[in-house]
Amino acid sequence: MGRSAEHVTPFAAQFPATTIARARPRLGGLHLSERRLLLLVGDVTFLSLALLGALWLRFSVLGEANEPFFVRWYWWAVLLALWFPLAIIARCYDLRRVGQSLESAVRATIMAGGVSALYLVVPIVSAPLTRSRLAWFIFALLAMVGMGLWRIVYVGLMRQSVLSRRALVIGAGDAGRVLVETIDGLGPTAGVEVLGFVDDRPTMQGRRIAGRAVLGTYDELLSLASRLRADELVVAVTEAGEVSGTFLNLLERCWGHGISVRPVQLYFEEITGAVMVQHIGPNLFVLMNGQDACYQRLWGAARRLIDIAVGFVGSLALAPLIPFIALAIYLDSPGPIFYWQQRVGRRGELFWLAKFRSMVPNAERDGAVWAANDDKRITRVGRWLRKTRIDELPQLWNLLTGSMTLIGPRPERPEFVRQLDKVLPYYGIRHSVKPGLTGWAQVRYRYGSNVDDALLKLQYDLYYLKHRGPVLDLLIALETVRVILAMEGI
């Protein structure tokens, strides 16, 4: 039901004329998704122009072709099919790295050269550049120079304040502080200019939190947002007792005035790809996804077929290598070749996980202990197996049996699960799906060796559970290739 007629006030009359004048629209900032899209469009444009320029020179200028100048759509399709997977593996779309202009330019230039070389050897469906070394050289040169210069221009554009979102953080507590520190850590690539805090507590007035001032109270929210030309309000009030009807009415008025209102949990997800689990409080519904149940079931069935295919083909490929791996393990440290551990799977059910042994025999005679980077129990061959993730390959058998899936939260040991379930909020939600051979936390964060690491990895696991689907799974698969090639295991 709406408000009674005697309490309804015309919208414009709720605000002074001077306030409305100050709040005139300006060029809004770009969200992270829009920044990635702009980067992607620029990459496609410069790669396409490089190929088009090389073809035009070959057909029309160099006179090396008897047929007239023409193009085929599939030439570009093949080029982009090579570029995007390799660029993702090389972190060309990691905005934190893209924000460093020199590193981003060098990385993109090298990748453009590599893709140009690969494109040269693709038969039939690639552009006819192989008939002319000069034409291919021109293509590679244009692609490398164009991509390098574009990345430098892109970083310069993204550093412009006019393209940054101006945000006021409501609530100067721990959640607000963590958010601002996270934004500062991301640098200009986050595209957010934090103007300051708004907080109703008298003890907070005039203080500085994470380098930003507390500018006023909730009653001043609309006037502050209008005067500072804020694009969005980030609500970092996480205690239910602090949210009153008056507070919600103030947010409604700001929202109606064209200022975006975002909860801190969703804002944190957008800029980090992780869930702010320690500041969710009792709002469990923040963790739930809005995906259609039919869509999830269909994708689940497709994933099972993929698991069986990968498990079968991977096991066949691994079989000839097992004798050599086994010999290396035994010569370095006599003992069993395989190591079996109990892990916690879906719905909390226990299963046996297989690994190539990477530690000395009886490494846990005194009980379960977190592995660390400088762990003395890891053998020389074992360290190499861990860095390349080869020690995990016997888990292909778990894919076939269905106790694991290709991508999902990594399964943990029962001893650690009991410990973490007591100290980490919502930890048990990880067990709502099958554990994975690789996962979002594994490609976004280093190997966990303590409870603090487990908390950070939980943030990524919960993000995956909320947003899982074919696109995110494909991204994780490509990122896993990078982790293996870079030998980022321990």
Based on the model shown, name its key terms.
18 helices, two-stranded antiparallel sheet, 6-stranded mixed beta sheet, disordered N terminus, Rossmann fold, globular, alpha/beta, 490 residues
Share of residues in strands: 5-15%
Shape: globular
The major sheet is characterized as:
6 strands, mixed
**Quaternary state, please?**
single chain
Helices and strands, in order, run as: HHHHHHEHEEEHEHEHHHEEHHEHEHHH
Radius of gyration: 27 Å
Percent helix range: 40-55%
Structure classification: alpha/beta
Structure in words:
This protein has 18 helices and 10 strands. It is an alpha/beta fold and 490 residues long. The protein has 3 domains: 32-158, no CATH class; 164-272, NAD(P)-binding Rossmann-like Domain (Rossmann fold, 3-Layer(aba) Sandwich); 293-485, no CATH class. Helix 2 runs antiparallel to helix 6 (133-158). The chain is globular. Mean pLDDT is 84; it is low at 1-27.
